[in-house]
Amino acid sequence: MAAAAVEMIHAYSLVHDDMPCMDDDVLRRGKPTVHVEFDQATALLVGDALQSLAFQLLSAPGLLTDEGVQLRMVHTLAQASGSRGMAGGQAIDLESTGKPLDAAELEFMHVHKTGALIRAAVMLGAHCGSELDAGEAASLDRYAKCVGLAFQVVDDVLDAEADSATLGKTAGKDAVQGKATYVTALGLSRAKSLAQDLRAQSLAALAPFGARATRLAQLADFIVLRKF
Predict the structure, then answer these.
(1) Which fold has domain 2-225?
(2) What is the sign of the dihedral through the CA atoms of 149, 27, 172 and 189?
């Protein structure tokens, strides 16, 4: 249920992000975007409904035996989705279009826009398992922050290098729209190096967990080494 709730927030954000008032894109995952396939009103309502359904699932009675933990999970996802997370980061992104941003400014934007939901997903998964001590929770959050940033760095690299058929979305659109990316801020070579550095940091953060974190380590590898 927790994973489904996160994916519903993610899907709603993509539907709204593709709309003409945002990024105005026509292709997502190799298919027409929702507002193109249907219409803008449907796309707006689809996103609204997915957001509500995410919290309906996560707050369902009996999801966890510890209702206090369940409430913290709802709070975590809400914070990651709102003005202090994804929505706030998107507002910064829209405001920054056509303006040069340095690496620190890009990190601030993407820690909110992309990273917040990834960090929430990791911590929600942790809440579903055995309780972590403060040190373990901090290590896991550090991992999540690093892979969240790595995802965006690699996304910027792929937008510059790959074609639309490979990406499943319109390639080169960031450059056309004048959006600041890690490629424009650092150059292609340094952006790739940053992605590898973030991968190394994320794997180091998992060291205290040993074999228990194998899947998370594989996820970090996939995020940085993906070619699509």
Answers:
(1) Farnesyl Diphosphate Synthase (1.10.600)
(2) positive
Q: Are 160 and 106 in contact (CB under 8 A)?
A: no
Longest dimension (CA), the chain: 50
The answer to whether 61 touches 84, Cβ cutoff 8 Å, is no
The domain limits of the chain are 2-225
Q: What is the pLDDT of residues 32-59, one digit of tens each?
A: 999 999 999 999 999 999 999 999 999 9
Residue pair 151/118 in contact (Cβ under 8 Å)? The answer is yes
Report phi then psi at 102, rounded to 5: -85, 180
pTM of the predicted model as reported, rounded to 2 decimal places: 0.88
For residue 135 the two structure tokens come to 């040190």
